[in-house]
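Render Anaphase-promoting complex subunit 4 WD40 domain-containing protein in 3D.
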Amino acid sequence: MSLASQPSLRSLPSLDVHDLNTSPSLHQCIATIKGHSSASAYVSALAVDGDSLYIASSDGSIRLWALDGARRRQEEQQEDDGCSSSSTTVADTDSSVKSLLATGNGGLLLSSHQDGKIRAWRAGSRRRDGETRPQLVLRAVLPTAVDRLRTCLLPWSYVEIRRHRRCTWVHHVDAVTALAVSPDGALLYSASWDRSIKVWRLPGFRCVESIAAAHDDAINALAVSPDGRVYTGSADKKIKAWTRGPGQKKHALVGTMERHRSAVNALALGANGKVLYSGACDRSVVVWESAGGGGGMEATGTLRGHARAILCLAAAGEVVCSGSADRTVRVWRRGGAENNGYTCLAVMESHGAAVKSLALVRGGRDDDGSCSSEGSSALVCSGALDGDVKIWSVFIPCL
C-alpha cells in the first residue's frame, strides 16, 4: 500500500480547530522538577509506570519522581503554580538515554541509549544513610551475552554496516531512538539511527528478527497499534507500516505514508489505535485515520499552531499532546461522531527551552473510558532541553 499518489502536505487541508486556550481554567502548571546541576544535561525521555514518573537525561542518568503529589494538587485544585520539586536518581549509565519505556510487565523499565544498547531494569531499593531509597536494578543489556556468543560463532550472522566494518545482525550500530512493546507483551521493538528495526522476544531478551535498511535515513520514532501493526517514522520524511501475518516469522512492509516535507520526529497512537499522529520538522502534526477494514491509514488533515519543529507527541483516548522546539506544549481534543475537528484545549508556554519529551496520564473517566458529565482531567508531563520537567493539570471538557 502506497499513499504517495495522494495530495501533498501543501494541499492537505488543516483540520477544523476550535481554540479554547484563552481560558486559563483549562490548564495549570502544578509542579516543576528541576534539572541536574550540569548545564549541558537535558531531559531526553519520560515514562510513567503507575504512580512513578521516570525522567531520563542526556547525561545517562534516570531519575524518579512520584506522581502522587501532583495528583493530590490536581484534586485539591491548588494554585501554587510552578512549585519546585526534586527527584531521586535511581540509575546511572555511561551513555546518553534516548528513550524510555515502562512495559507494565512486572515492573520492567527499558531504556535505549546513544551507544546502541538497550538496558532492562527492575524497580528495587537500596539502604543508604539509614533510609531505604528507590533504585533501578539492571536486569539485562541487549544484545545479551548469550545473543552475542550465539551469533559471533556463525559467519552468516555478520552484516556489513559500513565499508570495511562488519557486525553481527543482533547489534544496533548507532543510537537506539525508540522502543515499543507488542500488545501481548511478548515482543519488544527497537528502532535506530542505523536505519534498522529489531525485534526482541520477552522475557528472555533474545533478538529474533532484524530489518536492515528499513528506511533510507535515521529512524526517529516507533509506535505499535493494538492489532500489532508497527509504525516507524524517519528522517527520510516517510512513515512505514509493518506487520507479521498469522504463521509468519518475519515482519513485512505493508504501507508507506508520505505527507511531511521534512524529518518525522515523533509518532503517537490514539483512539484505541484508530488514529496515528505524526510530528515533523515542518511544524505540523499530520492526522492519519483507519481506511477501510484492511488496517491501512490515510491522512485526514493537519494540526497547526507550532512555530517550530514538532519534537514529541503523546496520545491517550481522544487527547493528543505535541511538544515543540518553540518551547510550547499544545493539548488537542479530538471531536465526536458529529464533529471531526479538533479543539485546542491548552497552549503551555512556560518552558525555557525546546520541549523534547512528553508523557500523558488520563484520569477522571467513567468505567467505559468516556468522559463523565463534568468532563475529565489529565496530567501532562513535559521535559525540555533546559533540564526541567513540568507537570500540568489539564481539564478535558466533553464535547
